[in-house]
Design brief:
413 residues, alpha/beta, Aspartate Aminotransferase, domain 2, Aspartate Aminotransferase, domain 1, 4-stranded antiparallel β-sheet, 14 helices, 13 strands
Amino acid sequence: MSIDPARLARDGGAAVRTAPLPSVMDSSGRRFGDEEVKAVEGVLRSGMLSSTWGTEVPALEHEFAALLGANHAVACSSGTAALHLAVAAVDPEPGDEIITTPISDMGTVIPILMQNAVPVFADVDQETGNLSPATVAAAITPRTRAVIVVHLFGKPAPVRELRELCDRNGLMLIEDCAQAYLARVGDTVAGRIGHIGCFSLQQTKHISAGDGGLAVTDDAALARRMRLFSDKGWPRDTTERTYLFLAVNYRMSELVGAVARAQLPRLPGVVADRRTAAARATAALSDLAGVTVPPDVGDHVYWQYPLILDPDVAGDLQEWAAALTAEGIPANGGYLTGALYSAPVLRDKVTYGRSGYPLEDVEYPVGLCPTAEDLINRRLLVLPWNENYTADDVDDVVAAVRKVHAVLAGVQG
C-alpha cells in the first residue's frame, strides 16, 4: 500500500526525515577532536588534576577573558555555579530581592535562593522571550539588589537599557549568557554590558566540557570575591590558611579546563555556522502565516531555533510539536512545562526544611507574567539547532515546518 506523502507522519504519511539530525547529545553534533584528546592526556600524564596547583584552568581564564575583552574571568564547576558566584558577589542581605525572568533554566534562580534572597519575576517580550526593561522597572522595590537577565536561545536581551536602569537605581546587573556565546551587542558581546557575565560549558552549549562555568567582569573586587567564593573563602593570594566568609567549593578541574581550552578556538566557527544555517531556515520560513521567525539583526547565535506561533492562525502549539517530531524534526512546545515560578520548589516553597525560607510571605500566582505564560502555553515552539547542520539538514527542517503548517494552519483557515 502506498503512503500519501502529503499526509502528516502522525496520520500515517511518510515522514520528511528518518535519519536523526546532528545532535549535541552525541558526536554527530559536537566538534571534539584530537586536540581535546591530547589536552586530556597531557593533564593525566602530568599527574596534576587540580586547578589549585595546575595550569590549564588559569590559562582558560586568561584566554576567555581575552576573547571577550574582559579584565577578569573566574572558572567554576557549572553555569549555575557561575551565577551563584555572581549572586554571592552581590552579597544580598537575607530577604533582599533579585529580579529575573520566568523563562529560563532553574539554574538562573537557584543561586538567588541559595544566597537567601527572593526571586522576583518580571514579564518578557512577546517576540524574544527576553526580559523587558519596562517590566523590570515596574518590579523594582526598596529591597531590590540586582537583576539577572537571560539571553534566551542566543538572542541578546536589551542589556544596554537594563544597565542604564540598574545604574539609576543602584542595582547590579548580571547577564546569564549560557545560551549566548559571542552574541553581538553593538560593538561588544553578551556578558560585557552587565557588571558580571556568566557562561556555561554544559553538554548542550555552543562549546562544552560536559559541565563547567565561567564568570567575567572588569571589576577586580567582584572578581576576587567570586574567586574566593568558589574556593571556600580561602585567600590563596595571601599566606594565610583561613576562611574569610561562608562559601562553597565550585573549583573547576584541570581536565575540564583542558577540554574547554581546546574548544575555545572553535567557538567563532561554531557561532558562524549556526548563524549560516539559521539564515537559510529563516529565509525559507518567513512567509508562513501565523509563524514568526527569530528576530535577528546580526546578533542572534541560535543556541536553539525558536518560532512564535499565532495559534488562531497556525494552529495548536502542542499539535505542532507532536507533528514535527513525527516528521523526524524534534520540537518542544513551550520550552518549559510552565513558568519557573510554577515549579514546586517555588510554588510549594520547598527550600530549607519545612521553613519555606526565604519565601514564607511570597506568592507566585498564575497570571503573574501573562506574556511569559502565553508563550509557554500557546506560542513558543523550539527546534534544536546545531553547528553541524548541513544545507540538506536545514532543508529537511524547513520542509517539515512547511508541511505541518499546510495542514494545521489549513485547519484553522
